[in-house]
Amino acid sequence: MTATASPTGLTGRTLFPGDAGFEEEKATFNLCVEHTPYVIVRAQNRLDVQAAVRYAAGAGRAVAVQATGHGIGAEADGAVLISTKAMREVQIRPEARVARFEAGARWAEVVAAAAEHGLAPLVGSTPFVSAVGYHCGGGLPIFGRKYGFAADHVRAFDLVTADGALRHVDPGTEPDLFWAVRGGKSNFGVVVSMEVELFPITTVYGGKLVFPGGMSDRVFPAWRDWTATLPEAMATAAMWIRFPDIPQLPEEIRGQYIFHVTIGYDGDAAEGARLVEPLRALSPIVDTVQELPYTRNGEIYDDPVDPGFYVEASGLLDSMDDETVKRVLEAVGPGAENPPFAVNIRLLGGALARTPELPSAVSHRGGSHLMMVLNLAPDATLVPPLTEHARAVLATMGPALTGGVLPNWLGTAMTAPEEVAQAYSPADWDRLRAVKRAVDPGNMFRINHNIPPAGV
Ligand SMILES: Cc1cc2nc3c(=O)[nH]c(=O)nc-3n(C[C@H](O)[C@H](O)[C@H](O)COP(=O)(O)OP(=O)(O)OC[C@H]3O[C@@H](n4cnc5c(N)ncnc54)[C@H](O)[C@@H]3O)c2cc1C
């Protein structure tokens, strides 16, 4: 095959290295990861996805799929990269409380369409990821403590498998695939569209309480005590950030060390305010917590919107006892000796820990908290040592670590099979590998957090 041979019969475009738009199309959110695909297929519809998969099969190339580039595992070197960015259709069936969206639709678009009917999907902390990519990694919603994992509320999806076939997958037609894709990421094919359940949420009470980082040795233990009193409708996380003193950052945050508590309450604003009162009494320097239309859910976590160079390490904790609080403060609190750039600790529990009606490949449901350690790594030579540093900081949590992680938190550093396996129980890992063998024995879909086919 020559370097310009293209899949035939496409509505969308193919982009080869050097073509206008090639760099933009393959761009990732984490700038430490750079794809160097053989070709990009900018799919317009499911037929384009099928054509791209068949073309890759004919050329003996791996397939990678990317919507927004927010969750890349492996670099798509020499692969056929299917970009779903142009597949953005969203349909709402209000009477059935169902949203159907294509692979490239971002959360913000699904949320806006559902809001027109007084309904809401189970969005995560950022509205800028694709709703399909999020669900394939299990989907930890802001309000997961009340509703459970988003993957548990998927009704059906259409999947293009390694043979180029389009399969309609629901619990009745393809029970193994229905289970595996919801948590097993892109290992089984390309999801071209998905249907999920909607909920009658219109407004929430949320935002951030910001404290000087130096106060975190007092506020973090108070936050831990406070979380023991909360209803499942209250979502919360604790976060430390040490902004470096560099000219690239806006003056107001440059060199600042802050600690903030994220608040999201799915209920009446007055009751939300009553629940938050003990934290407000600790005198935050910034308080953005207010009643918000659900369409402004992105303001709850206020995640970064611009791509950056970063490395991460994440893990689940099974308790936040006094010893763990002490370890967290030693790692990132005011007296920390070699702290990371940021640490985020999300409260889990509630419905996240319960067995759903339609089990999915989200194995680790019992964690009490999810901890993520982040370092900025603007220079490629710093990626290995700063990744090691993030891992070392996480490891200081010692016995509180369950050894598990959620699929959407595998990050760019955790792509070796033994690391990917940490996202699943041994029994689920074996089942995932068996499903993989049945639908993708040649491991065409290996540019991801790869689940090797059983027997390989
Ligand atoms: C700032 C930030 C905040 C986040 N917050 C949350 C959160 O609160 N809860 C949560 O659960 N996750 C969260 N995530 C993780 C995010 O949901 C995952 O990284 C998700 O995979 C991103 O999907 P994407 O398609 O936008 O990204 P992409 O990088 O385009 O895709 C990431 C991966 O998703 C899979 N994928 C994407 N499209 C398809 C498809 N059509 N078919 C099959 N597989 C596909 C593939 O494995 C692909 O490698 C967050 C990520 C970031 C960067």
Note the topology.
Blueprint: E1 13-15, H1 22-26, E2 39-42, H2 46-59, E3 63-66, E4 80-83, E5 90-93, E6 98-102, H3 107-115, H4 131-136, H5 144-147, E7 154-160, E8 166-169, H6 175-184, E9 190-197, E10 203-212, H7 216-227, E11 234-242, E12 257-265, H8 269-280, E13 286-287, E14 290-293, H9 298-301, E15 310-317, H10 322-332, E16 342-347, E17 369-376, H11 383-395, H12 417-420, H13 426-439
Parallel strand pairs: 2-4, 3-4
Antiparallel strand pairs: 1-2, 5-6, 6-9, 7-8, 7-9, 10-12, 10-13, 10-14, 11-12, 11-16, 15-17, 16-17
The structure holds flavin-adenine dinucleotide.
Descriptive overview:
The chain has helices at 22-26, 46-59, 107-115, 131-136, 144-147, 175-184, 216-227, 269-280, 298-301, 322-332, 383-395, 417-420, 426-439; strands spanning 13-15, 39-42, 63-66, 80-83, 90-93, 98-102, 154-160, 166-169, 190-197, 203-212, 234-242, 257-265, 286-287, 290-293, 310-317, 342-347, 369-376. It has 13 helices and 17 strands. Strands 10, 11, 12, 13, 14, 15, 16 and 17 form an 8-stranded antiparallel sheet that branches. The protein has a 5-stranded antiparallel sheet with strand order 5-6-9-7-8. It is globular, with a radius of gyration of 22 Å. It has 456 residues and is an alpha+beta fold. It binds flavin-adenine dinucleotide. Flavin-adenine dinucleotide binds next to strand 3, helix 4 and strand 9.
